[in-house]
């Protein structure tokens, strides 16, 4: 499973690096959101911007690659209350994919474990 991600401040990038994925299993979404077209299932990791919005490049990437979109994880800040990680909720609703987790900053070791368990669960679903 590919992990596609977009990072504004570096927190999402640090989270993805903690996953320990082999080379070639991650895709860093470009600023234009359209430079990468996938031909296999992927999980999307995104920050939340503003008051719970999906960043523009992520929205474009998801729209272009929606056929292979299997799940989402969203970063955010708990200080935003109900808008914490809301980009994940927006994408879940828009594309009918599961929200694997919300995490703060670059995530904790527990967040990484939960994410990897979610990816394994989705991989099992899609392989059967």
From TrEMBL:
InterPro entries cross-referenced by the UniProt entry: Flavoprotein-like_sf, RNR_Ib_NrdI_bac, RNR_NrdI
Origin superkingdom: Bacteria
Gene Ontology molecular functions: FMN binding
Entry coiled-coil feature ranges: none
Function as written in the Swiss-Prot or TrEMBL entry: Probably involved in ribonucleotide reductase function.
Similarity-based family: Belongs to the NrdI family.
Protein name (record): Protein NrdI
């Amino acid at each position: 499973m590919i992990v596609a991600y977009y990072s504004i401040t570096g927190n999402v990038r640090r989270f993805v690096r903690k996953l320990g994925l082999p080379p070639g299993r991650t895709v860093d979404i470009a600023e234009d959101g359209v430079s990468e077209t996938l031909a296999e299932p992927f999980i999307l990791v995104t920050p939340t911007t503003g008051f719970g919005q999906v960043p523009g490049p992520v929205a474009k990437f998801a729209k272009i690659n929606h056929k292979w979109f299997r799940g989402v994880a969203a970063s955010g800040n708990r200080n935003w209350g109900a808008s914490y990680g809301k980009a994940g909720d927006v994408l879940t609703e828009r594309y009918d994919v599961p929200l694997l987790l919300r995490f703060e900053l670059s995530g904790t070791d527990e967040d990484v474990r939960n994410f990897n368990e979610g990816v394994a669960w989705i991989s099992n679903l899609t392989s059967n």
